[in-house]
Every structure is written in structure tokens, then in C-alpha cells.
Amino acid sequence: MLSLTFIRQRLLEAGLARTLLLAILMVFSLGNASAAQGATVSGVVLSPDSSVVAGANLQLDPSNRSATTNRQGRFVFANVPAGEYRLTISAIGYVPVSRSLSVASDSGWAGQILVTRQPQPLPPIAVQAVRPSEWAHTSRYDDFFRRRAMGQGVFRSRADLLRMGASDIASSLQQIPGVTVSATPNPYGELEYRFRIARCPGQPPRLAVFIDGIKAATFGESTENRGSELTGVSGTPRRVPRESSCEDCVRLAEILSSFPATSIEFIEFYRGPGQIPSDVDRGDACAALLIWTR
User: Fold this and answer.
1) Which of 42, 175, 202, 290 is most buried (most C-beta within 10 Å)?
2) What is the mean pLDDT of each run of 10 residues along the chain (294 residues)?
3) 130: number of CA atoms within 13 Å, CB side?
């Protein structure tokens, strides 16, 4: 017969074994729970200037989970099982970004994601034709129409000259504020063109003359431009008598009187250095006259 002491010893040993077994089972249970809980995927979304992007949408696939960045641009995915994922970020005004992530069970994933701004399309610009339809077949007068659109200077067309009853350059340049043009013979029988321009002193003032966009000559006191510059424009220049009261006025008359109003399509006149456009090679001239022939 077993003694009472033996039985008590066996019961005590069985209780210790049961307690040890329960402890072991508890440890395994906690480990499995931790494994089931998973890791954390977190980070911050930044723009190119390192400012945070709040309100960005994030999609974690293939888990099909989503999140939104807070005011600090941060996001968190909790309880993410270890594995390979693709994280897609989209925000208004930014180019969508997609990144591959490797999530470890012991460390998860954390990092910064940079998004770039979406280029903003510009509204379409309506381009108006420089040339009126009447001259759509040629680009010859493009510079005239372009400068006329800028609004500086005085611009006159052949139709304007017909309305004015202009027969020559002098009459075509009438009624320009601050400008007086006259064509009169001098005591030596030479025709002189005299310009008086409020903003330009001298007689004649330093005036650059262009024919069909090409500079023909510059007239004015102390000018070195003499008749050779006019060759091919009004024929071979003749020698002006030394006794002339204004040699440049005579030479100016020679070139301008060779263009009757019927041969002119357009005229541009700039009555001061501040009016002359930068694309007109005025040199040291104070005023500019551009004649466009038919």
C-alpha cells in the first residue's frame, strides 16, 4: 500500500509540471499574437522644396489598405504582415508616385517620399495675324504692321494718302503734331525739303531715311552721308552747288521727290529718339522716315 507521503509527492510534481506547461503555452501564445499583429509602415510625404504635403492619399497593395497624410505630412499603416508591397501616393497638384516596399516582421518600414508638382497647362493663346487679309500673300510689309501694332510713331497707308490728296512726301507728312515739312526752291533754283521737328534741333534735323526696310541715308548738320549713299535709290546724285543754303536739304529733296505718292504703299515716321523702335537702325539720328513702296 502506497504511503500518504508518496502520494502527496506525486501530486506536487504533477502540479509543477502543469504550471510549467501553462507557462510554455503562454509564451508561444504571446509570440503568435505578436506575429499576427504584424509590423508598421510609416513615413512622411514631402514636396521638392522639403515642405510637407498634407491630405495626400496613400494606397498599400496588395493589402488594399488606404491612408491619408496628416497636417505634418505623416502617414501610418499598422499591423502590416511581412512581405512585398507597392505604395501609391497621389495628391492634388502633384504627380502620382508609386514605390515598392519590403516590410520586415521585426522592423517594418519607415521613410520619406518625395512628390513633384504637376505642370499646370497654360491657357491657349489666340494669335492674330500680323498682316491684314489684303496682304496675306506677302510678308514684305510685316515689319510695318508689327510696329504699327505697337502704337509708337505715325503710320499712314496709301488709302490715307489718297484721302489727304497727297502728291508727294511733303504733303503726306502733314498734320503730324510737332512736325512741319516744306518743299520749296532755294535762291539757286534747287528744291529743298525742310523739316522742323519739335524734339529734334538742326536744319535739317538728324533724319534717317529708309526705303523698303533698307537704310538709304542720314541727313542733318555735320553729317558725312553724301550723295553716294543715294545711288540706286534716286539715280546718280548730282553735285550740289557749294553756294546752296542747305546742301542736305537739297539732297533730302532729291531722294524724297523721287517717290510720288502713287508709288508709296505705307509710311512710318518717328519724331524723336524715344519713339524710334529698337529694331530700326537709326544710328545717331534723332528722327526716322520709313517709306514702303508698292
Assistant:
1) 290
2) 55 53 50 61 93 94 93 94 94 92 89 88 60 82 92 91 89 88 85 88 88 90 42 42 69 86 93 91 92 93
3) 13
Whether the model pTM is above 0.85: no
Residue 37 near residue 79, CB atoms below 8 Å: yes
Sequence-separated (6 or more) residues with CB below 8 Å from residue 105: 35, 38, 39, 81, 82
* Bond from prior residue into 81 cis (ω within 30 degrees of 0): no
Domain 39-114 annotated CATH 2.60.40.10: yes
3-state secondary structure of 125: coil
Exposed / middle / buried, residue 24 (Cβ in 10 Å: 0-12, 13-18, 19+): exposed
Question: Are the CB atoms for 195 and 204 separated by under 8 Å?
Answer: yes
Domain ranges of the chain: 39-114, 137-293
Residue type, 169: I
Q: What is the architecture of the domain spanning 137-293? A: Beta Complex (2.170)
Instruction: Give dist(CA 153, CA 209) in Å, integer.
Output: 14
**CA–CA dist 95, 115 (Å, integer):** 6
